[in-house]
Specification:
Blueprint: H1 2-35, H2 92-95, H3 98-126, H4 128-153, H5 158-207, H6 215-231, H7 233-276, H8 281-322, H9 328-338, H10 344-360, H11 363-388, H12 397-444, H13 453-456, H14 461-465
Helix pairs in contact: 4-5, 4-7, 4-8, 4-12, 5-7, 5-10, 8-9, 8-11, 8-12, 9-10, 10-11
């Protein structure tokens, strides 16, 4: 009995000491929390995932003879990375600034877009002849389509109206080309004589000029020119052969353009409807509205350019004819054709007329030709183009210069011709698609009592606006 009392006293003393230690520890924790009142409470430890051990006994699922395989053990996720000081490292996504993340998102999309444009340009370069022929057919169709429409409204069948317009248009263009060639061949002898006299006159002027040019220097320049021509005979021959290839390609392109123009005049609407089916169904609504507007812009551009070019050719041609410059009619036709290349074409054709006037008639006549060309071009830029073309196809001069330069680098003269109408059509399409997307977003917004804007609008209201 005494032994039991002794062991009880020992156990009681041990429990008393343990209680004293717990009270001391609780007091220390309370003191630390009082010193740091803003510190977050410690998070409870995450429970370790339960791992089922593989046992030899089977689980009684259906028959107790076979044992079900135990799932594989899943390792618990390791602790987050720690800095050398022991603190937790921040999230990498949070370290990157928002502006840099936006720039990265925009950059890779621009890279994808640039790659797509590059591949598209390579494909267009590989079939450049076909693309230019089809674009030329589009321009010619935009010029001749109103004639077909008027004939159909007058009661002429579609096939007959298309045939009359097609044959008449290309016969007229052929007659213009024949007239230019005839005028050049008829005046080439006179021009050659005047060119020789002009070179002799320029030589005398250089000898008597204040530049102190001697006759030996002029003869040396002529000898160097002759030697250059003789030493590059092979290159000139290759250029001639290449010129034959260019003529063949030109004839092929003309045939393709004529063939495409015939079918665009006759069946253009069905071709456009078939083209719409190549796009996703969600995009057809916007493209169906953008197509007619783009065609109207192209038609206005071609028609206005033809009228402006004709006025330039007539007035400049009459001016140089009164100044007795030879080949006034061919020069006027060149001015008409060059007007289809905005800005650059007018400068090139005016410079050609000045050179002919300088060589054949002298510096004073060349100065007068320059005045005539500048006056007509000023009237064209400030009066004719805003009045005839209007705001529908107005393109900023900087966009005109950049588009002509890019088109000439990509496809030469043909690219320079189609660059500005392409920019005008693209501007129209992008503007319409932007407004169409805005209207679609507004129509999808819920109105009062859950109805959409489209349901509340009058019948046909949104369709007419779009």
């Amino acid at each position: 009995m005494s032994e039991k009392r002794h062991w009880g006293a020992v156990v009681a003393s041990k429990l008393a000491k343990l209680a004293d230690r717990l009270d001391e520890r609780r007091a220390e924790v309370t003191a630390e929390q009082d010193e740091q009142p803003d510190a977050p409470p410690p998070k409870p430890p995450k429970p370790r995932p339960h791992v089922q051990q593989r046992t030899g006994a089977g689980t009684a699922a259906g028959s107790g003879s076979e044992s079900a395989p135990a799932p594989k053990a899943v390792a618990a996720p390791g602790p987050p990375p720690q800095a050398p000081g022991g603190s937790q490292l921040p999230d990498p996504l949070g370290v990157v600034p928002w502006s840099m993340r936006v720039a990265a998102e925009v950059a890779w999309r621009l890279l994808v877009l640039a790659g797509t444009v590059y591949v598209l340009m390579r494909v267009i370069g590989a079939i450049q002849l076909v693309v230019l022929a089809f674009v030329a057919a589009l321009l010619i169709t935009a010029l001749l389509q109103p004639v077909v429409g008027r004939l159909k409204r007058a009661g002429v069948p579609r096939g007959l109206a298309t045939g009359i317009t097609f044959i008449g248009g290309f016969v007229l263009m052929g007659l213009v080309g024949w007239f230019v060639v005839w005028q050049v061949m008829d005046n080439v002898d006179d021009l050659s004589t005047k060119l020789t006299d002009g070179v002799a006159e320029m030589k005398r002027w250089l000898l008597n000029s204040p530049f102190h040019v001697t006759e030996d220097q002029i003869n040396q320049i002529a000898k160097n020119l002759t030697d250059t021509i003789s030493t590059n005979t092979k290159a000139i021959t290759d250029a001639g052969l290449q010129g034959v290839t260019v003529i063949v390609e030109l004839l092929t392109g003309m045939l393709l353009a004529m063939f495409s123009t015939l079918f665009l005049l006759y069946d253009g609407r069905n071709i456009w409807n078939w083209t719409l089916k190549l796009f996703p169904a969600a995009a057809r609504d916007g493209l169906a509205g953008a197509g007619p507007r783009a065609w109207r812009t192209l038609t206005l551009y071609v028609r206005g350019t033809v009228i402006v070019a004709l006025i330039d050719a007539v007035f400049i041609g009459v001016g140089i004819w009164f100044l007795n410059v030879p080949m006034a009619v061919p020069l006027a036709v060149v001015i008409f054709v060059a007007a289809f290349v905005p800005l650059v074409g007018a400068v090139a054709s005016g410079a050609l007329a000045m050179v002919v006037a300088l060589v054949t008639e002298g510096p004073f006549t060349a100065l007068m030709v320059l005045i005539v060309v500048l006056a007509v071009q000023q009237i064209e830029g400030h009066i004719l183009q805003p009045f005839i073309l209007g705001r529908a196809v107005r393109v900023h001069p900087l966009a005109v210069v950049l588009s002509v330069a890019a088109g000439s680098l990509i496809a030469g003269i043909g690219g320079a011709v189609v660059a500005v109408p392409l920019v005008a059509v693209t501007n129209t399409v992008v503007g319409y698609l932007r407004s169409h997307a805005r209207e679609a977003a507004l129509a999808a917004e819920p109105g009062p009592q859950g109805a959409t804007v489209e349901e509340l609008a009058p019948i046909g209201g949104l369709a007419e606006e779009s």
